[in-house]
Amino acid sequence: MAAADAEHEVTRLPASLDRMTDADEIAAGDTMARRITESLGRSDGVNAATEAYLQQVGSRVAVNARRKMPYIFHYIPSPGFVNAFAIPGGHFFVGQGLLRIIASEDALAAVLGHEVEHIDLRHCAERAQQYRAALIASGMPAALNVRRSPIRKLARDKRQTGC
């Protein structure tokens, strides 16, 4: 069992010894979040009200985080999206499908607290660094330029960028 634990920990090593700064993480997350929200289309009044509610509950949870950064909560209006995920820089996305099955505000706070912890422990930033390092190692020039990198794919695949 100790070998399995050690192997798991090795996979969690950061892509480099230099951590991404909070400012760099926030800038990368803002870019990713903008692309995700643009791909979702315009927000109507119902979506805005839901996002405001998510922000209200999420802000109460995030106040306990060690890392002080802007925590922004987004709504994905898809009944088939029964999940929540975080991306670097303090952005969180919660699906309509998940909200439909959450029975209480306490349960929502627990889900959001779990996602806040991913940001607090730098899991999302580390995954983004690992993904970028893999792109560089593969010779993909997109990794060197954030504007040309496959951020849309990154944002869709939480196994690579989100937590």
Task: Kindly describe this structure.
- With 163 residues, the protein is mainly α.
- The chain has a single domain (20-156), classed as Metalloproteases ("zincins"), catalytic domain (Zincin-like), CATH 3.30.2010.
- The protein has helices spanning 2-11, 22-40, 45-62, 96-101, 105-120, 123-137, 151-156, and strands at residues 72-76, 84-87, 91-95.
- A 3-stranded mixed β-sheet has the order 1-3-2, with helices on both faces.
- A hairpin with a 3-residue loop joins strand 2 and strand 3.
- Helix 3 (45-62) crosses helix 5.
In which order are the strands of the major sheet placed?
Answer: 1-3-2
CATH superfamily: Metalloproteases ("zincins"), catalytic domain
Shape: globular
CATH class: Alpha Beta
Number of E-state strands:
3
Secondary structure tally, helices: 7
The H/E string reads HHHEEEHHHH
Q: Give the overall pLDDT as a whole number.
A: 78
Question: At the third CATH level, what is the topology name?
Answer: Zincin-like
Structural features:
Zincin-like; mainly alpha; 9% strand; three-stranded mixed beta sheet
What's the gist of this structure?
The chain has seven helices and three strands; from the N terminus they run αααβββαααα. With 163 residues, the protein is mainly α.
